[in-house]
Design brief:
- This protein folds into 3 domains: 7-27 and 262-292 and 320-373, no CATH class; 32-42 and 188-255, Aspartate Aminotransferase, domain 1, CATH 3.90.1150; 46-181, no CATH class.
- It has 7 helices and 23 strands.
- The protein has a 6-stranded antiparallel β-barrel.
- A hairpin with a 4-residue loop joins strand 15 and strand 16.
- The chain is an alpha+beta fold.
Length: 374
């Protein structure tokens, strides 16, 4: 005959299987390629921005009260020898826009890249419009690319007197390969005596592991961890003219990155994500709630016809108070993520309750992890 203790264990496991908000018992950390967790310092994208005009819109451009759009049109026409008074311009097929792009690392003059086009004033849609030639500048004020072409918004908007139908955002769009790169951002790897590998997630343990990995598989004593973010690599003599080959070999190395113990909660959506390395000190957890339900039933008393009586309405109220009875669970020191799931489900917690419990455990100093609320 099964004991009450074994029955309790089975009930707990069934509760774990029926969990609505899941906290997965993660396997040991898997190895990742160096290129997926780090990059070469100085090798990055550069932001570009420009101001331009989108023409050819079907009565969905900026309104006649937007003065800078009219001034831009007048200035544009002036470049072609046409003098126009901005106050007399009344068009709805032109929209002022901001054009943005990311200039890739090692991009060469003559190559193309995508650009984003976003309305700057009160245009209702950029559908069917064409961006006129727009210079894209970097933070230094230099022109690095020129954009032009038809705008694709990936949606539509249909307006009628009584309403409208809209899909996606019609006031922002994209021009695939719409910008021609005119100027390069120089970064010459050839001839460098050293370079830094920069981790995307700073960690002293990962930086030390990476340096040891490079020294073991590439050449001894060429890599030194600088801080939690960077590892300095000296270029060996045999790679003096083949720095690209050296970087390719380093990027293909596999490493198991260190990770901080974290619990991330989103109170707006009730989402809880618990890292595999989260541990708890000994703590007792109890969570219950008081449910009050009020049910009102109206009763109507009608007098007989022509009796001169009055209709009487009475209400019968039924109040039910129910308090959840839940056990006080003791979570021992060093509890793993799997055991944590089991303990939380044993006392029947839901998404919102789980967030409150984690906050309380953190406040008690028993949660050995960083609690992030987003």
């Amino acid at each position: 005959m099964a004991t009450s203790k074994s029955i309790m264990k089975k009930a707990i496991w069934l509760t774990v299987l029926g969990l609505t908000v899941w906290t997965v018992c993660a396997p040991p950390a898997m190895a990742a390629r160096v290129k997926d967790i780090a990059g070469i310092r100085g090798v990055r994208e550069n932001k570009l921005i420009g101001y331009g005009l989108v023409i050819g819109l079907k009565n969905s451009g900026d309104g006649t009260t937007v003065d800078f759009t009219k001034t831009s049109i007048a200035n544009l026409m002036g470049k072609f020898g046409v003098t126009v008074d901005p106050s007399l311009i009344k068009v709805r097929n032109v929209a002022a826009v901001m054009v943005t792009a990311d200039l890739p690392a090692f991009a060469k003059a003559g190559l193309r890249m995508d650009v984003m086009v976003s309305s700057l004033a009160d245009a209702t849609s950029l559908q069917g419009g064409t961006l006129l030639m727009t210079a894209l500048k970097g933070p230094d004020g230099e022109v690095y690319a020129v954009a032009q072409g038809p705008v694709s918004i990936g949606g539509f908007v249909v307006r009628a007197t009584a309403g409208n139908v809209q899909q996606n955002h019609p006031t922002a769009g994209k021009i695939p390969n719409g910008a021609l790169i005119e100027k390069e951002v120089t970064f010459n790897l050839k001839g460098q005596s050293s370079f830094n590998i920069q981790l995307y997630e700073p960690d002293f343990g990962t930086a030390t592991k990476l340096a040891s990995l490079i020294n073991r598989y590439i050449e001894p004593d060429i890599a030194v961890p600088v801080d939690a973010t960077a590892v300095e690599v000296k270029v060996p003599a045999k790679f003096k003219e083949r720095t690209v080959n050296l970087l390719a070999q380093i990027e293909d190395l596999e490493i198991t990155p260190e990770a901080r113990a974290e619990v991330v909660v989103n109170e707006r959506t009730g989402t809880v994500v618990v890292g595999a390395d989260v541990r708890l000190a000994t703590v007792a957890v109890s969570h219950g709630s008081l449910n009050i339900q009020i049910k009102e039933t109206p009763f109507v008393s009608q007098p007989n016809p022509l009796s001169g009586g009055r209709t009487v309405v009475t209400t019968d109220s039924e109040i039910t108070v129910k308090e959840d009875k839940r056990q006080l669970m003791v979570v021992p020191t060093g509890t793993t993520i799997g055991q944590l799931v089991q303990a939380m489900n044993a006392i029947g917690v839901g998404p919102r309750d789980l967030i409150s419990i984690f906050q309380a455990i953190k406040a008690a100093g028993a949660l050995h992890a960083e609690l992030k609320i987003i």
